[in-house]
Predict the structure.
Amino acid sequence: MSFPIVDSHCHLDFEQLSDDLPGVIARANAAGVAMMVTISTRVRRFQRLLDIVEAHENVYCTVGTHPHQAAEETDVTVDELVRLAEHPKVIGIGEAGLDYHYDTSPRDIQAASFRVHIEAARQTGLPLIIHSRAAEEDTALILEAEMGKGAFKPLLHCFSSKPELARRGLVIGAYLSFSGILTFKTAEEIRQAAELAPMNRLLVETDAPYLAPVPYRGKTNEPAYTAFTLAKLAEVKAVSVDDMARATTENFFRLFTKARKTAAFT
Ligand SMILES: [Zn+2]
Ligand SMILES: [Zn+2]
């Protein structure tokens, strides 16, 4: 890998990775992954993310409540998210959204939390990291209605929906981030979604420790494996790996305007 890439979504605070954080980050850097964003799932555990990003120059974080935890954190307000996002290493809001596959939180509570995060994204101007699983229609309806009330910057992370959500997301300016699922044999519809997205709206991520790409499928995922998803995305878009690396990295810095390029990118 000659051009440095970014893992736009991982969970370095989860114990599978936090137990060996220096090793995880060193292996990522060695594999050309020069920057990582560790994504918040619980505002009440946000300090753990700050401890990580303050110790590592090339790691940034977000702040927000995952839809699985929405029922645990109904007291999180727009003002609180906006205030926490003032930290220089907080570069996005989320992950928030709708997960009807697990339905860990009641759907109306997931939707209310999603809207709180959208408003925080609007007020801060930071990208909103959207988690959507088995909830395509409601995700699209909320995003479209909210975009009509005032602009924000949507990122559909770990894109694993039908091409229709990609289409509707692209219309409102969303970026699409692809994970290791893109490399799975059965992921034909997800590859179709990638095909219809323009090069300047694509990002890559691991969502580590979950969803390791082929050839590590089923194992603990880590940011170093971003390159496998990137290579598959290049194949789907019929461009070179280097061109895809350049495009996704440029897209990352265009979307995440608070992220500062480290020496690896210059
Ligand atoms: Zn997610
Ligand atoms: Zn995640």
Summary: Residues 112 and 252 are 28 Å apart (CA to CA). Residues 9, 11, 39, 95, 207 surround zinc ion (ligand 2) (CB under 6 Å). The domain at 5-260 is CATH 3.20.20.140 (TIM Barrel). Residues 107-124 form the longest helix (18 residues).
